Amino acid sequence: MGYNKIIIIWVCLMQIIGIMSVKGGNLVQDLDIAWGYGRGKFVNNGQLIKLTLDNFTGSGFYSKNEYLFGKIDMQIKLVPRNSAGTVTAYYLRSQGDAFDEIDYEFLGNLTGQPYTVHTNVYTGGKGDREQQFHLWFDPTTHFHTYSILWNPQTIIFEIDEIPIREFKNLEAQGIPFPKFKPMRLHSSLWNADQWATQGGRIKTDWSQAPFSAFYRSFRADACAKVAGRLSCPPRSVTWMTRTPDGLSQGRLNWVRKNFMIYNYCTDFKRFPQGVPKECHFHE
């Protein structure tokens, strides 16, 4: 059996497991609704969060704790059907103007057209490290697990335990890496039809509103900042030193080959004087 076939079988198994697994947990103890005038709400006795967007405003939530390194997981079911113009954002971010951020943004599309998963990493308020992907499944029919693994060595974006992107710590080469500022988890559903779908050519169809995304099974296996002090769980060793092994690297390469649609490191028109320094080490 070829390696690509093994990867495909493993991916299908992970999708089935992700669809079937329903972790308990009341979200109210870990998360707060941030904004939306009632459009963001806990439902099913706190087992779900529903974010809604209409032509007046969107909505969002954030974590009660800030985290400095860890593995953050959440199951999300995105806006179905015609979601063009909408963005569902899911990210870690520190406070202040010189913020650090680890960012997923799910860019909606016309019915039948694929979502775009937009990723970015900011250090000191500077990003411009975009990579974009299509998905190998429909993210609107079932919940899927979206993860951020962040430790002093690396940042890994994972979907259903499949890595889609790695951003390595290259401070030794003079490249900033977020490792000093605790970050809070945020998520929001908002209108960005000036740029989100096909470069802004497709606008939000408000006749389809309200738009809704659903969240469940939040897990932060992470060092949390509580009452000004950092507290790390006993199991932190499982992620604090983790980097991709050979199998994970193979899955990452599979995603890059088959589903990556934009990589700032190969956008030479955008960077005519040369791509950012980290690109020479990440590629």
Nutshell version of this structure?
The protein has 283 residues and is mainly beta.
Please provide a written account of the structure:
- The chain has 283 residues and is mainly β.
- The chain is 14% helix and 39% strand.
- The chain contains four helices and 15 strands.
- The chain has helices at residues 3-20, 237-240, 246-259, 279-282; strands at 31-35, 40-43, 48-53, 59-77, 86-93, 101-107, 116-122, 131-133, 144-150, 154-159, 162-168, 183-191, 211-226, 229-231, 260-263.
- The chain has a 15-stranded antiparallel beta sheet that branches.
- Strand 7 and strand 8 form a beta hairpin.
- The protein is globular and about 50 Å long.
- The protein starts with a helix and ends with a helix.
- The chain crosses the membrane at residues 6-22.
- It is found in: Secreted, Cell wall; Secreted, Extracellular space, Apoplast.
- It comes from Saponaria officinalis.
How are the SSEs placed, and which strands pair?
Elements: H1 3-20, E1 31-35, E2 40-43, E3 48-53, E4 59-77, E5 86-93, E6 101-107, E7 116-122, E8 131-133, E9 144-150, E10 154-159, E11 162-168, E12 183-191, E13 211-226, E14 229-231, H2 237-240, H3 246-259, E15 260-263, H4 279-282
Antiparallel strand pairs: 1-4, 2-3, 3-13, 4-9, 4-12, 4-13, 5-6, 5-12, 6-7, 7-8, 8-15, 9-10, 10-11, 13-14
What are the low-pLDDT stretches, counting only 5+ consecutive residues below 50?
A: 13-24
Q: What is the helix tally?
A: 4
Rg, please?
18 Å
What's the quaternary structure here?
Answer: single chain
Q: Roughly what is the average pLDDT, rounded to an integer?
A: 91
SS content category: mainly beta
Report the portion of residues in β strands.
Answer: 35-45%
Largest sheet: 15 strands, antiparallel
Please report the distance between the alpha carbons of the first and last residues. Answer: 28 Å
**Extended strand count:** 15
Q: Name the helix and strand elements from N-terminus to C-terminus, one letter apiece.
A: HEEEEEEEEEEEEEEHHEH
Overall shape: globular
Portion in helices = 10-25%
